[in-house]
Each structure stands twice: as structure tokens, then as C-alpha cells.
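Hi, here's the filled form for the chain we discussed.

Project: internal
Contact: R.S.
Residues: 203
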Amino acid sequence: MRERLPEDFYERDALTVARALVGTHLVHGDRVARIVETEAYRGPTDLACHARVGVTKRTRTLYGPPGRAYVFLIYGMYDCFNVVCFGEGKGHAVLVRAVEPVRGVAEGVRSDGPGRLTRALGITRAHDGEDLLGGGRIAIAPRASRPRIAVSARVGVAYAGAIAEAPWRFFDAASAHVSRPSPRSIGLGLKAKAPSESGARRR
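And the returned structure, exactly as it came back:
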């Protein structure tokens, strides 16, 4: 495995980290996949973020130090992998929504969605709090090249009100492994919105 991303990579606002993670490599044991879709969740004032409820048993990791895995269950059946960022007590995290298999994932196994990618890579809630900086079973390695990044509102967060329309979802515009959510599940779901494209920002 190539070197892990350093601590200062994660010590930034979730919005910056979410964009910068697209194209990096998520590694779990002998399974490797390129991250192709992310969403930023920006602390207690972001009504779509778990941090809005404060520190609880579920959100303790979210409020912990940057560079840790935050893994939680949704709909009683899907584990979702997130990366804690910005700073301890900030409640910022990036949801990894889709990956493109590189090695160790069986052919035909889908990874275009947060629940699918954790199954494909063998990531579960047992990995909640995992240190991504060193010594842990999960790592994120730097990207080899800079992808063309497209932007949209986040998926499935209409309950959060106006902030659901914030353009905080980032994805590799050229990848076939990006999720394909219904337009009604993007942002407030009021209308189909074509994603805008923007160049990836250099670290």
C-alpha cells in the first residue's frame, strides 16, 4: 500500500476534505478501491449532519479527532463509512458514497452507493473509531491523478430544509461507479438539476 494521507489532510473543513478525497484510494486489507463520490457534513449547524444532536453514544466518534473512521447504521441494514475531519469537537465528517474497485473486490460486486461500498470492502460498524493515520485496518492513500469533479446537492437530506440545497456532493464526472440517485432525492428534490462541473482543487 502506498503511504497514508497525513493528519493535516483531515484537519480541514469537511467541504474541502470532501472534494480532496475524490480520487484517493480506500484500503481495507487486500481490498483497494478508488473513492469516486463524497458528501460533506459540516457540524452542528448543518441540519443534515448527525452533529446537530450533540455528543451521544452514536456521535462520539464524529466529535472526536480528525483522521478517524465514523461508521454508522442506516435503515437498520446499511453501514456507512465516513471520515472525521476539521478538528476535535467540530462534528465535521465526509460520507464516502461510492468507490471504484481496484483490487481484491469480486467481479460484479457493486460499490456505487454508501451501503454497497462498505459491503464490497468488508467495512462494518466494528470499524467505527478506526485510526486512518496509522496502525489501523483501514487506510486512505493519496490519489495518483486529479479527476474532473462534478458537484451537486447531497442525497436524501430534504428533511434538513434549505441547507439540503447546498452543493456539498462531489463526484468523479468520468466514473461509471458513481451512484445514480433519483433527482427527487437530491437536495430538496423540487426539480431535476444537472450537476455543475468544476476542477479539483490542488492540496
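Let me know if anything looks off before we file it.
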